[in-house]
Amino acid sequence: MNNEQQNGNGQNGGPQILTTRQGHPVTDNQNLRTVGNRGPATLENYQFLEKMSHFDRERVPERVVHARGAGAHGVFEAYGTVGNEPVSKYTRAKLFQEKGKQTPVFVRFSTVGHGGHSPETLRDPRGFATKFYTEDGNWDLVGNNLKIFFIRDALKFPDLIHSQKPDPVTNIQSGERIFDFISNTPEATHMATFLFSPWGIPANYRQMQGSGVNTYKWVNGEGKAVLVKYHWEPLQGIKNLTQEQAAEIQAKNFNHATQDLYEAIERGDYPQWELLVQIMEDHDHPELDFDPLDDTKLWPKDQFPWLPVGKMTLNKNPVNYFAEVELSAFGTGVLVDGLDFSDDKMLQGRTFSYSDTQRYRVGTNYLQLPINAPRCKVATNQRDGQMAYHQDMVEGVNPHINYEPSSLGGLKEAPKAGKDHEPQYNARLVRQKIDRTNDFKQAGETYRNFEDWERDELISNLVNTLANANKVIQDKMIENFTKADADYGRRVAEGLKNKAKNTGEVGAPSGATKTEEGVKQAGEVSKEAKPY
């Protein structure tokens, strides 16, 4: 039952009457109840107390990462095939099986490291999280626009994010802090190469790629599994910005990407992405010079081609940003039958962290919110907790029984949809790096694959950011870039040698310049005002 049905608003063409949260009609929303019209106010102002106390609690804790976001609803249409083969050969996930089968989706785009109202022109990976409301429950495909990541072990994730966040003393983001971490984390060289190139600032959300980043598995009806990587390719094309272009846009509109997405959908220019997968046999592939579970690496397209499996169209804007975008909650562990986890150490860590964050941020019963609730019937023995506004029960089940097994009419286990996937392990429990780290080869390949203007922009952004870092950090980064590609390291070294250090310059991680000049300019060009 919705609010209109509950309070009678809008029925039979009647007026839209303002009420309190208790449903009491509000006859005066302009004035407190006071002793005389000048006050004081009285304590029994229930309407005011309810209104103001709710206002005091309007915000939930901001996401530690992916705080700034935009979202939209849409539909995913399956091709029924993966490349030229029936998709059932590789996975029994129902949403992929039939050509033309449509599944509702909600997508949240975001920046990763910056706050909820930060400019959308800042250099940062972009989040690309998709919630599929399938007949078997929700599937969350949680990823970024860039197809790799900084680290390969989840234990390092808090350290990475701390280095990206503002200095805990000055509250100013520092390029030196970021590169202090990256220089001591060789596997991050590849991600830094992408991030400080134009790929670090997508032009908008509609014209950027998406990726699952981690390696997952598909499981077929026989319980056999393959490794998969997911890729969203925008049918609008891909566009990126230079640092200078981004600064110009930021001076005019720091909400440009959110506005672009909203207005495109409003005018009926619905953005579309094709979902493609790469498939690899499920083992460690000793013939490769990298580990396929290492999320700092790309799977070469010539060896593992991108195979289309469906197309997504975003065709509806949120009605309420907070209820649909801010409260939307995603988790890498939210998989349906036919999809499974790989042994990717980052994926294992994310699977705990993401859903745990939502329980803290939104609440124990966040899955009862409409934006997060599955579209299929939910029946659990989980009860109570904060903001439990219904119980996950179905008609015909004994309401006295909230446990399983039971002979008194409780919930029963579901039949299996296919054979279990049962990977086998025979190894010691250790704390060790993977065998094939190969931290620099793909970073060099990425550098050489860039166009000339992209390499020029990369070098400029790196030099501007590293110029005010400690020389120890500069030297380590030059060493790592040189290991990736001799020309790469040489150009960064020459750029740093020729760039004079600007005393007091913060060295923003975006590659921005003249940050200290901006501080002085604000004081020098501003107009004096008389007190009032």
Automatic annotation (TrEMBL):
Please provide the Gene Ontology terms (biological process) for this protein: hydrogen peroxide catabolic process; response to hydrogen peroxide
Looking up Pfam families in the UniProt record yields: Catalase (PF00199), Catalase-rel (PF06628)
- InterPro entries reported for this sequence: Catalase, Catalase_AS, Catalase_clade1/3, Catalase_core, Catalase_haem_BS, Catalase_immune_responsive, Catalase_sf
Q: Which GO terms describe its cellular component?
A: cytoplasm
Q: Which reaction does it catalyse?
A: 2 H2O2 = O2 + 2 H2O
Q: Which GO terms describe its molecular function?
A: catalase activity; heme binding; metal ion binding
- Presence of keyword Cell inner membrane: no
- In this chain, heme is annotated as bound at Y354
Segments of this protein annotated with the region Disordered: 1-38, 495-532
Top EC class per UniProt? oxidoreductase
EC annotation from Swiss-Prot or TrEMBL:
1.11.1.6
Q: Superkingdom, according to UniProt?
A: Bacteria
Question: Which family is it part of?
Answer: Belongs to the catalase family.
Protein's name according to its UniProt entry? Catalase
